[in-house]
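Fill-in record for Sodium/proton antiporter, CPA1 family.
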Amino acid sequence: MELFLIFSILITLAAFFSFINIKFLKLPSGISLMLMGVLVATGVIVTGYFSVGFTEMIREKLSLIDFSEFLLGILLSFLLFAGSMHVSIPDLKKSAKSIISFATIGTLISTVVVGYSLFYLLSAFNQPIPLIYCLLFGALISPTDPIAVMGILKKTNLSKNIETNIVGESLFNDGIGVVIFATILKIASDGAENFGIADIGILFIQEAVGGIFMGLIIGFIGYKLMKSIDHFQTEILISLAMVMGGYSLCHSIHVSGPLAMVVAGLMTGNRGKELAMSDITKDYLGKFWEVTDEILNAVLFMLIGLEIVIVSFDLSYLTIGIITALIIIIARFVSLYIPAVLFRFKKVFGTKSLFIMTWGGLRGGISIALALSLPQNPYKNILVSITFVIVIFSILIQGITVEKVIKRLTP
């Protein structure tokens, strides 16, 4: 009953702040909800100076929600499926070379650059952390968050090519980032001496390739079932089963659920809509997942803002976080520029387009969830705190200004 009460409060706050935003602020919904969540959390913290019991009560209630499990185990499957349903496969095919390069090589480059930069930065602040944990941080913070990215881009006027690359890369580098994170975490837990190149290759193939393969199977089964009937209520139920049953199956056989949901969503939103659904089903299915996406996004961004209450901050963490946020922007540009030069599609993009992709590559709930999923160790608190600072900086600073940046850099 307590969890129901907490989610009732979250939904009520999200509804109220969404109303305020639509009526007055007119910001992208994710930005407004996160901003309001941060303000509420700040209010709780300030009130705590006068009533310690009040802050402790809020922390106790929020701790009932395992944010990492809630996002990675529940929300992520719905949000990735819903987001990928709106992406055109023909558009993805046109940009396949750049999307794959950015999502794989780019994420790896960013992981290394951010990891080593944090290692030396923390040493300069006399708070050294082993390099393997800095690389682990690089892996969790490098993927751009498709949930945040797609919500912000709805209000911008980007060219189709750049928008497809930003959305496509964010959908796939999320899954790749989780695989890299899991691999480095395995190395940190077992010791580098017990984890060879062959082990890394096997884990990557199992997680990434296995996830894509499972997504194809889930998408194909859903497509066949939908094609054999014409009943929109049942077809919506089938799509829910694809997400919930499919994601649970991926988790149980240790393959990448996020990648599976992206592939299944792409198949449902393209081949499924074209060949397996009537016009009525297309309409109802599309609206169902659009509303589901909006509601879950509202809960997620509100919860991210409120989660600040349970994080321990001090001034040095805030300073390190802001410096790291700036380093991540540079690392993001480098991780896009190098693949663009290596695979000879830089002329197609141009430096301005790469900078738009850099500034529009937001970090969000996935990074926080991965940070919170770290096992308890002496370094977890500082890594979680830095992650929160970076995500707040990314969504509130980059998110609010990305539309102006795009207008300034596009003719």
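KEY FINDING: The mean pLDDT is 90.
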